[in-house]
Design brief:
single chain; 683 residues; alpha/beta; 18 helices
């Protein structure tokens, strides 16, 4: 009894102690039931699930792999494309290549040594600049599939809110087939105080909110253009259905109509027997001109249908043919339809959009310009753009006719060129050729008070965007920069001396940046040529909308893609145009917040690397895309490389414009910060 009572007492005491302990523990466990811990636990579960699903599906997603950094066993061709394109001043492409998947892993994989890591970039392990880097290679199967894509399959990452869809753009009304916004602004032109100096032919862009908001229509019966080089001699009538030039210039061997085509015999007002014979005459007059060697870049003023420039191409000379949109308003349109470099431009009151010392030879054949008016300010603009030691060829009536008024004009031209220190090298027949001095010594040795004066030393001769012409002689650089370019084709890759004059960061390393940029674009174009068959793609008129040092255009020449490139240097960045011209290329300064001075349907390929992520801070990117559509020919192509968010927005705009487009990953995978947008414009 005693034992039983004692056991009962101990059991009661045990229960009491357990109950007391549980009372102490349970309150401490109540925190598990709090709303905060429930949310944290749920978030962790969801995060882990998303991570697993994301890894699972991105591993199985077929990416565009021709940018990968490992060599395909089927090919050794290399494609160089990087999301850092366009940022060549500070890019560092340190990418590591995943090992190729060869099946199941080895049994003792845990004991295998780690694979060697290949560093790829333009900064080496010590942090120094180097040009020894690789951009990457491609998988030919994936690339071939992409090249045959119709845009139906695409990769969308980080796209905008689906509720904010862009409505489809309408087609502009009939009559706007040749609309050029900044040259057809009738309202603004009507408000000009004066037009006697050609002001109405200069840029007068629409006010904000009044710009192009529709798709410029094509002419009735428009056809896929005739391929180059056949297009040099004939184009479809329906593509440029204007007969004014035939009526005015048909007798001068410029242009004629045969059936459903315009035909270009190759003549001009001063060379009715053909441009080839005319060029031979110039070469014989001044052998130092040496077309295709010493003379590589030419400006043809008042070009007509650009036969002068068209026939210089076969002599390894690239000629920028310019003319205003005047009574013969379609001459530049004919030039571009032929596949000849051309642009609408006028000698009026503002500087042309080209840098100082741009052209090795400037040519004017009956260009209807009074060079001596206003104390020679127009010829001073020619002098600014003419390279030191370059030539000016003038074929006009005052050279060879003996009427009193024409001889007076010749005397005025002789006097002005003498004061500019130009040397009259040769006058023969109806052509006179002058040469510009190599340095400033002649200018300093002129008599006191001789006009025009030298420009102020602080005057920037390369500042051209909406800058008025200056009534002064542009000084040549004291170190001879610009005068010492090497002969073609070596100058394409030689380091230009004027690289040191560009106002940009990285003064010491800019030479290495230039070399790395050239190497980078060489590998990129190598990839495009192999992946997209650019040599077989009938490309002719190409525009690089953010050209940098011109590496994109130089690489196209290296790979013998039979095209020419208009290198556009945006005003939002540093002015690299002098370097581009020193390389033997052509280009222009431009602000992409405004329309470009060209006719509709004039380019086969528009390339924009890193452009929109910069310009979106200043411009409406929908307006830029509409301008691209205006410039792009039917069947033309667009390649845009930019950040994920920008590319996805541009993709929506492209779809709204009716382009067939697709967004693709780069080798860095689906989580990289850059994408490639490829678009086709269909008729």
């Amino acid at each position: 009894m005693f034992v039983s009572q004692e056991n009962s007492r101990f059991e009661l005491q045990g229960h009491s102690q357990i109950s007391a302990a549980m009372k102490d523990i349970v309150p401490n466990l109540n925190f598990v039931k709090t709303p905060a811990i429930i949310k944290v636990t749920a978030f962790a579960v969801v995060a882990l699930s998303c991570f697993y699903l994301g890894k699972h599906y991105s591993d199985g997603y077929q990416q565009l792999s021709f940018f990968s950094t490992f060599r395909s066993p089927q090919t050794g061709s290399a494609v160089g494309v990087s999301p850092n394109v366009g940022k060549f001043s500070d890019q560092n492409l340190n990418l590591t290549a995943p090992p190729p998947n060869t099946g199941s892993p080895p049994k003792n994989s845990n004991n295998a040594p780690p694979p060697d890591v290949e560093r790829i970039g333009i900064v080496n392990d010590e942090g120094a600049m180097t040009v020894e880097f690789e951009v990457g290679e491609f998988d030919p199967d994936s690339v071939e599939n992409l090249g045959n894509s119709d845009g139906g399959e695409e990769k969308r990452v980080g796209s905008r809110d689906s509720t904010a869809k862009i409505e489809k753009f309408r087609v502009c009304e009939a009559g706007m087939e040749d609309y050029t916004p900044c040259l057809d602004n009738v309202e603004e032109i009507a408000r000009l105080n004066s037009t006697e100096r050609g002001e109405k032919y200069e840029r007068h862009c629409p006010e904000k909110g009044k710009g192009l908001n529709c798709l410029v229509p094509v002419p009735k019966g428009y056809k896929h253009r005739i391929p180059w080089p056949a297009s040099r001699d004939k184009v479809w009538f329906s593509n440029v259905p204007h007969t004014r030039l035939v009526e005015d210039k048909g007798g001068q061997n410029w242009i004629s109509i045969k059936g459903d085509k315009f035909v270009f015999p190759g003549g001009g007002t001063q060379f009715i027997h053909g441009a080839d014979q005319y060029l031979d005459q110039i070469s014989q007059m001044v052998p130092d001109i040496a077309f295709g060697n010493h003379t590589r870049v030419v400006l043809d003023i008042g070009c007509g249908v650009a036969s002068f420039g068209a026939f210089l191409l076969q002599r390894n000379v690239i000629t920028l043919s310019i003319a205003p949109k005047d009574v013969h308003e379609n001459q530049i349109q004919f030039a571009l339809e032929r596949g000849v470099p051309a642009m609408v431009a006028v000698f009026a009151t503002h500087r042309l959009m080209y840098p100082s010392q741009a052209f090795d030879l400037i040519h004017c054949s009956r260009c209807r310009i009074n060079w001596t008016r206003d104390d020679g300010i127009l010829l001073l603009e020619v002098n600014r753009m003419l390279r030191a030691g370059g030539f000016f060829a003038w074929a006009a009536q005052p050279v060879y006719k003996h009427e009193e008024n024409l001889q007076e004009q010749w005397k005025e031209m002789e006097d002005l060129t003498h004061r500019l220190c130009w040397e009259l090298v040769k006058k023969e027949g109806y052509i006179a050729i002058w040469r510009k001095p190599l340095n400033n010594s002649c200018y300093h040795n002129r008599d006191t008070g001789v006009q025009p004066p030298l420009c102020d030393p602080n005057e920037d001769p390369d500042d051209v965007w909406y800058v008025g012409m200056k009534p002064c002689i542009t000084r040549l650089p004291e170190k001879g920069y610009g005068a010492n370019v090497t002969a073609w084709p070596a100058r394409l890759h030689d380091l230009p001396e004027r690289l040191q004059t560009i106002e940009m960061d990285a003064y010491i390393s800019r030479k290495e940046i230039f070399k790395a940029d050239s190497k980078f674009w060489h590998e990129v174009i190598d990839g495009y040529v192999h992946a997209y068959h650019w040599n077989d793609s009938n490309l002719r008129n190409v525009m690089d909308m953010r050209a940098g040092f011109g590496g994109f255009a130089a690489a196209l020449i290296d790979f013998q893609v039979d095209c020419w490139v208009m290198n556009v240097v945006p005003v939002s960045g540093f002015n690299s145009l002098p370097v581009i011209y020193d390389r033997g290329l052509i280009g222009v300064r431009h602000d992409w917040c405004e329309p470009f001075d060209t006719y509709p349907r004039t380019y086969d390929l528009l390339h924009a690397a890193g452009l929109f992520s910069i310009e979106q801070k200043r411009c409406n990117i929908s307006n830029i895309m509409l301008e691209m559509d205006r410039m792009l020919r039917p069947y033309g192509r667009v390649y845009i490389r930019d950040t994920v968010s920008v590319v996805n927005e541009l993709h929506e705009i492209a779809v709204a414009m009716g382009w067939v487009s697709a967004v693709h990953d780069t080798s860095e995978g689906p989580h990289a910060s850059w994408r490639l947008l490829r678009c086709d414009k269909r008729l």
